[in-house]
Amino acid sequence: MPRDARRAAQARADQIRAFRRELRTLADEEAFRPSPEEEAALTAHHERVLASLACDFDIDRSEREGQLSRGMQIASLLGAAALVGAVAALVNQFWGRLGLSAQVTLLTFFPLAALAGVQFAAERERTRYVAGLFGLVALGTAWFAMATIARALNLPLSPLLFWPAAAFGIAVAVSYGFRLVFALSLAVSVVAMASVFFAGGGVPWPVLFNRLEPFTGAAFALLVLSPHVAPLGDGFDNTARHTALVLLLGASFMLANVSGLSLLAFAPSTAQIVYQVVFVPLSIALLWRALRTGDSRGATLTAVAFALFILVRYFDWFWDWIPAWAFFVVLAGMAFASIALLRRVRHRQETEAI
Amino acid sequence: MSRLVVAALVLLITVGGLLGAAAWNRAGDVQSIVLTERELRLAWNGPLDRSEIRLRLQWQPRRDAQDARFWLTDLKLREIGFTTGVPAGAPEAELFYGRSLPRLAWVAFELNGPAWRLIEQRIEMSRPSDLAEPTRAYGRPLERSRLVPIDAAVTPEPLRRRYADAPVIVMPAVIRMHYFSSKKEGPSVWGEVEDLVSPEISVPARLRGVLPPPAKEGDQEPRYEVGFRVGRLGAPWLEDIRRLSNDDR
After folding, report:
1. Which of A267, A283, A320, B120 could form a disulfide with A306 if both were Cys (CB 3.0 to 4.6 A apart)?
2. Which residues of A are less than 8 Å from B7 in CB distance?
């Protein structure tokens, strides 16, 4: 059975719910009403399908159950953060009194115990919220262990450590389809890729956060490579693409708006202008691609980044130049213009679909 | 369980790798020196009863442009990887050196040697108003580290050979270029040790009890000395700590 079968099952349940809603609407509009026999047969069939899906995959059968599931997802995220915090506080509490071997043993035990928790929960619970919680705890405590053991041994935090940190996260994520763990691990692998650029030139790796081009390049490489992770299933290709988009757009946004973050040999203000010019076609190209491929989340991410960019540029360029009332009127005008533009894009897509 | 075995293996190999790196660092040609509280101070001034204790290395930053150029010459800066072709007086110098990236290099730190004695003389000659400034270089005696950077290179071997018989330790550090211009002295450019790669050293549990509580304002003289070691990877560790009596000082 494929690992993303639960998502397919949930999609089928959502489809049945939508079908029933549409059938009720059609009946209310007196456009179509199935005969009582047909309706009974249809209802019985759907109930059987839903019962089977619920039994096999523990899917959400109603909107309310879906809301509760989202609540459980948030609760598992908070629970994971709290557990990692508890481990860090516990270590801090007794750390000084322990010898090195006890410190290393304890730090290695926490992530291994969390991995055992993942396995134990995944075998007993089909929704995998608790397993997901343990997956995040395993990731957090493993990264904490790697950094703390290096610190206890007085070894500098080398960029070489980012590779096993990312590999551990990817191995945990792939085991049971934990997409958040996957996204966090990919973000670390982007940092690892960018650090190679600086470490190779004898420059301290933390500079990668002060000169963002290698980070941007690594995020772009991840975007290009993201379709190749599709065989892993569980929508990991989408996760990789969206993680890459967040990192790429975030780094490009910073390069375009914050002075002194570029490696370019120009004055900081000139480099900023260069990246402002680059950001517009880049985000339009990414938006166009997301719309073409039907990637709604990717389109939203790019549109939000582009809107933020326009807003920041507008404030930066015009706040001191024009009166406040005119400033906000133009801003409202831009909002209307963007609505009109998006309508045209939607209309065009609808036409193409027909 | 097989799905998670890969993750567990990655973790165990990484931890094993860290322990192996630490063991390799401590084996072979180890540098050894005895430092005092002037050079190794508590990194945290809070209570020492529960949490991890770390000591922070203190060194003379040699921020004076003339002094810095004396030990970190243009030639050495170029060797480390800096571009120094733009004269300090050139219009583009401020932008050029201001945007220059820091570099990793191995730095030789001399303890209580001729370089420190020159700095000490300058402290003695400085006016009382200067001494009132609580800077790292010219604070109270306890804050005057006698560890002074005297040489730098891309690799540690030449430095270790050159200073084999001197009270010198060679450690990896971050070096940065600085540009400053004043009406009185004009523009100047120099290199400076911005930080060490491992500036803080963990105190092993067996040595915790020897350390006194954090220094108070009235403490003038060092209260402990530390057997300090630096291994092949440049990672330091503490071998022992000894409380100093009045006679030792």
Report:
1. A283
2. 115, 138, 142, 168, 171-172, 175
Strand B200-202 and strand B186-196: pairing?
A: unpaired
Closest CA to B44 of B187, B208, B154: B208
Break chain A into its structural domains and give their ranges.
1-61, 72-157
DSSP A90-139: HHHHHGGGS-HHHHHHHHHHHHHHHHHHHHHHHHH-SS-HHHHHHHHHHH
- In 3D, which of A154, A349, A184 has the Cα closest to residue B198? A154
Q: Is B216 on the interface with A (CB under 8 A)?
A: no
Bridge-based pairing of strands B103-111 and B200-202 is unpaired
- Contact flag A204-B18 (C-beta cutoff 8 Å): no
Chain A residues whose CB is inside 8 A of the B206 CB are: 99
Residue numbers in B near A156 (CB within 8 A) = 172, 197-198, 235
- CA–CA dist A181, A187 (Å, integer): 10
What number is the ipTM of this complex? 0.86
Out of B4, B49, B197, name the one closest to residue A156 (CB): B197
* pLDDT tens for each residue of A110-128: 999 999 999 998 888 777 7
The CA-atom distances, in angstroms, between A306 and each of A11, A215, A280, B167 are 31, 19, 8, 59
User: Reduced to 3 DSSP states, what percent helix, strand and coil does chain A have, rounded to the nearest 5?
Assistant: 85, 0, 15
